[in-house]
Amino acid sequence: MSQSDKFWDGVAEKYARKAVPDEAAYQRKLAETQSFLTADMQVLEFGCGTGTTAIHHASYVKHIDALDISDKMLEIGRQKAHKAGIENITFSRGTLAEFNAGTASQDAVLGLNVIHLIPDRQATFAEVARVLKPGGVFVSATGCLAHSWLRFLTLIVPLGKLFGLMPDLFVISEEQLVREITDAGFSIETRWHHGTQGIEVFIIARRI
Ligand SMILES: C[S@@+](CC[C@H](N)C(=O)[O-])C[C@H]1O[C@@H](n2cnc3c(N)ncnc32)[C@H](O)[C@@H]1O
């Protein structure tokens, strides 16, 4: 188990109880995502956390594979889905690369509030492009800290990780994020930001 898995296991219960910080923005993201979903779709979500978003989308698609590196997050997700009577989400432990979905096997891939936590974004975007069908959609919400004072948090990440108080955290700007996604073979369909200093960036991109 890595330091990041331990961190996310440790905060899972609290994360599950926490209210969504910006309910209006969350509802907008759900609605915009659902406008791209159809009942025959296979969806893959990496970094699913406690499954809240997957549960919201489950009735709009055929099946969702929901992945996370934290067993605790997954356990809570499974319980929530069971309680809601949802049977078309499969929760699995691991990263997107570890899951190794078939090439062009997915209609949509979701990476929500997770990309800024992943060390190798380019490899992640390449993997998203590989597993998506041409014309498939990649839905992401990413903390872009490059122009915020919060970027200084990364200076204490090594120490925070050592004590299990912080996960991996990487600084990126919105412009860089958009460039990396388009370079991986996507066209941007939707892009907007919200949150303190506009650091929460929501993008729906289509696999060319
Ligand atoms: C901030 S939470 C977001 C959870 C959920 N997507 C949401 O929007 O509420 C980040 C989640 O990503 C997971 N995570 C972190 N790094 C990951 C990685 N490399 N691959 C898959 N999941 C990861 C963590 O365990 C945690 O559950």
Can you describe what's shown?
The structure is a single chain. The chain has 208 residues and is α/β, with parallel strands linked by helices. It has a single domain, classed as Vaccinia Virus protein VP39 (Rossmann fold, 3-Layer(aba) Sandwich). It contains 8 helices and 7 strands. The protein has a 7-stranded mixed sheet, sandwiched between helices. Helix 1 runs parallel beside helix 4. The model has no long low-confidence stretch (mean pLDDT 95). The site of S-adenosylmethionine (SAM) has 19 residues, from helix 1, helix 3 and strand 2.
Briefly say what this structure is.
37% of the residues lie in helices and 25% in strands. With 208 residues, it is of the alpha/beta class.
Topology order in helix (H) and strand (E) letters: HHEHEHEHEHEHHEE
From the alpha-carbon coordinates, what is the Rg to the nearest angstrom?
16 Å
Structural class: alpha/beta
Strand order of the largest sheet: 3-2-1-4-5-7-6
Q: Work out the number of β strands.
A: 7
Uncertain runs are: none
User: What's the CATH superfamily, by name?
Assistant: Vaccinia Virus protein VP39
Distance between the termini: 36 Å
Number of helices: 8
Helix proportion: 25-40%
- Which cofactor or ligand species appear? S-adenosylmethionine
Instruction: Kindly provide the name of the CATH class.
Output: Alpha Beta
Q: What percent strand?
A: 25-35%
CATH topology: Rossmann fold
**How would you sum up the global shape?**
globular
